[in-house]
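Regression test case RT-17, inverse folding.

Input:
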């Protein structure tokens, strides 16, 4: 219940069945500045009672006792003090009156001074209670306001945290928050699982240095950070090897934001780590692989430039052929490099159409038959049905078939057979290329489709063919873009069967 407003002129309700008493009280109180309401019995009291500063009430009354009036007042006007008066005081009624919450208990006749003093105390008590109530209400309102504010801010924080967590967890890069002075990992997103092989819980609280290959490597990172700070830079970038949980390394690009306090002291580092192993390896491979044909080309060109006038036709033709071959080799490598980077950055657009895989494979068999015959290799075909349709990008799947046939010929010895197979299998179309060539060492099979992974497969072409080591990586990406699968079965020294399967409808079978 809300506290009643304070009453400007002190008001008293007098309840007594004797008119003479009522009048006497009225007179005394009015002469002291009180407004006085009166009631002669309990029913009248319940009718007339209004919010007032005090109730003066006889105990023995017709139609209900003074204790009833006390209960009524406590219930309906809880802030109004009730002073009970009686001509027949008894310990029981006094005790009952106090138990029911009477403010005071006076014995008649009541002297004017005693009456006024008791009323003053009652009124002050009421005012204090009201003040207390007001303060409590204010306090409660303030607390509610505060609670609401805290709830709002907590919600906002939760939302922004959820947003940030979702955001960082959708990132492919690993985000670390490092606290000073130990560069301890305070926060890390889910990408740490994929890139470093750690569960976030395993690495939280650990020093960041644990992810560096050695102390020196971490010192380089630290030095760079000190240098950046003293140059007034809040960002730094470093590329260096980092350690995965399984002990292997990645080439990591680490972009760090340095958070400083007002006095310039480093308090936090936010480091975003990107695995650039493939990128750096790919650049390395391409640079390395392009170097030899390019130096051959420049060497030959220099000879041509100086001896051109005196050179015979046959030598000239030989030189030009070599130049042509090396240029084509570089072109092939660059084409593949571009293909891989395009696919790597998610840029594989598939032009899907209904394709008869048997026709497609046959086209490539025709195309490669000359190359095969030059190496005395026979291309055989074995298809379950003449029509095996599936929805795919004919050109891109053609590249896959071409690379598999090219490899089979490249890694087969003269006088052997390469067999092309196609069949339908559980909602997929399966294509296989089986050769009787070198085969692949079982421990190297894992590197086959990784292209520019750290290790190259040791099998070398049996003729003078070019081997860049990117073809199968491209095949894998193309097949996977079609929701298909690619694999190999091989026994080293006894040939290999490379295969891929594509969902008939362009979607993987359930
Ligand atoms: P390119 O990029 O020109 O295709 P590549 O043929 O060497 O060069 P991939 O097709 O990716 O590269 O094959 C990767 C490696 O796998 C090859 O270098 C070779 O060592 C091995 N390999 C591929 N196919 C066969 C095969 N049929 N038999 C044995 N080894 C193979
Ligand atoms: Mg190849």
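Golden output:
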């Amino acid at each position: 219940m809300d506290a009643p407003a304070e009453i400007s002129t002190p008001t008293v309700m007098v309840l007594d069945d004797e008119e003479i008493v009522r009048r006497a009280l009225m007179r005394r109180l009015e002469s002291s500045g009180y407004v006085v309401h009166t009631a002669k019995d309990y029913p009248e009291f319940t009718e007339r009672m209004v919010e007032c500063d005090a109730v003066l009430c006889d105990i023995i009354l017709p139609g209900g006792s003074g204790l009833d009036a006390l209960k009524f007042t406590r219930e309906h006007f809880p802030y109004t003090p009730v002073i009970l008066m009686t001509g027949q005081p008894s310990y029981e009624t006094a005790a009952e009156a106090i138990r029911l919450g009477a403010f005071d208990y006076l014995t008649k006749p009541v002297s004017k001074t005693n009456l006024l003093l008791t009323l003053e105390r009652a009124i002050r008590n009421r005012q204090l209670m009201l003040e207390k109530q007001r303060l409590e209400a204010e306090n409660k309102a303030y607390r509610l306001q505060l609670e609401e504010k805290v709830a709002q801010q907590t919600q906002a924080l939760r939302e922004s945290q959820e947003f940030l967590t979702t955001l960082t967890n959708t990132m492919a890069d690993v985000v670390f928050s490092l606290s000073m002075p130990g560069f301890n990992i305070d926060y890390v997103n889910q990408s740490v699982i994929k890139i470093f092989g750690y569960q976030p819980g395993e690495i939280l609280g650990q020093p960041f240095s644990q992810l560096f290959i050695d102390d020196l490597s971490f010192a380089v990172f630290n030095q760079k950070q000190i240098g950046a700070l003293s140059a007034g830079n809040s960002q730094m970038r470093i590329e260096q090897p980092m350690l995965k949980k399984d002990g292997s390394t990645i080439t990591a690009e680490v972009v760090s934001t340095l958070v400083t306090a007002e006095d310039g002291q480093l308090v936090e580092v936010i480091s975003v780590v990107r695995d650039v192993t493939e990128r750096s390896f790919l650049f390395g491979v391409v640079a390395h692989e392009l170097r030899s044909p390019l130096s051959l080309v420049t060497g030959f060109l220099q000879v041509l430039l100086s001896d051109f006038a005196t050179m015979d036709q046959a030598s000239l033709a030989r030189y030009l052929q070599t130049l042509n071959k090396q240029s084509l080799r570089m072109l092939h490598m660059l084409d593949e490099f571009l293909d891989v980077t395009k696919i790597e950055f998610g840029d594989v657009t598939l032009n899907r159409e209904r394709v008869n895989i048997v026709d497609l494979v046959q086209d490539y068999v025709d195309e490669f038959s000359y190359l095969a015959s030059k190496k005395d290799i026979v291309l055989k075909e074995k298809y379950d049905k003449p029509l095996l349709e599936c929805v795919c990008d004919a050109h891109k799947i053609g590249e896959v078939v071409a690379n598999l046939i090219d490899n089979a010929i490249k890694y087969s010895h003269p006088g052997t057979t390469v067999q092309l197979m196609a069949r339908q299998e559980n909602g997929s179309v399966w294509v296989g290329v089986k050769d009787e060539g070198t085969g692949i060492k079982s421990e190297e099979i894992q590197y086959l489709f990784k292209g520019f992974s750290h290790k190259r497969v040791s099998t070398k072409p049996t003729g003078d063919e070019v081997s860049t080591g990117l073809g199968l990586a491209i095949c894998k990406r193309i097949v996977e873009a079609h929701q298909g699968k690619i694999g190999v079965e091989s026994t080293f020294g006894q040939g290999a069967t490379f295969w891929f399967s594509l969902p008939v409808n362009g979607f993987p079978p359930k």
